[in-house]
Amino acid sequence: MTASPIPIRGLDHIVLRVVDTDRMLRFYADVLGCPLEKRQDDLGLIQLRAGSALIDLVPVDGKLGREGGAPPGAEGRNLDHFCLAVEPFDEPAIRAHLKAHGVQAGETAPRYGAQGEGPSIYLTDPEGNVVELKGPPAKEPQ
Fold first, then answer.
1. How far apart are CA 10 and CA 97, in angstroms?
2. Within 10 A of 133 (CB to CB), how many other CB atoms are there?
């Protein structure tokens, strides 16, 4: 395999076109703990920090959002899912926190990702986007 001339280092950001900006902002900031990093209301762009990456919320009725066509819905999502790496992965604490915010989570299962196979939980944000919370691979016994 030859080295790629494009040295990808990880996820930089994702962009979600949103209908209810306040509800989505509360979900990502309050439930998932992604702090507000930058807001450009003239463009219709809200950027939240998710570790080393950003989650951009673009209201469908804003300048940028209108360029994307119809809003997301049951028949037309903007993506299948995205995954946020969580470390440490304290399943009971994660589930208690999600439940306290009224968020239902799927079963925890081992799934493969960029860092290897580790525990993960799927949940859905207020507008139907699927979010995977993924823990690190289990440490090998020494």
1. 27
2. 20
* Domain ranges for the chain: 13-134
Tell me: the pLDDT tens digits for 45-87?
Answer: 999 999 989 999 989 888 888 777 777 777 666 776 889 999 8
C-alpha neighbours within 13 Å on the C-beta side of residue 84: 24
Under the banding of pLDDT at 50, 70 and 90, the label for residue 115 is: confident
Instruction: Tell me which residue of 96, 87, 79 sits closest to 139, measured CA to CA.
Output: 87
Under 8 Å between Cβ of 122 and 80: no
Domain 13-134 -> CATH class: alpha beta
Cβ atoms 122, 81 nearer than 8 A: yes
**Which residue, chain included where needed, has tokens 């939980």?**
121
Contacts made by residues 135-142, CB under 8 angstroms, sequence distance 24+:
135/85, 135/86, 135/87, 135/88, 135/89, 135/91, 136/85, 136/87, 136/88, 136/89
- Per-residue pLDDT tens for 13-23? 898 988 899 99
In 69-108, at which residue ranges do the beta strands (DSSP E only) sit? 81-85
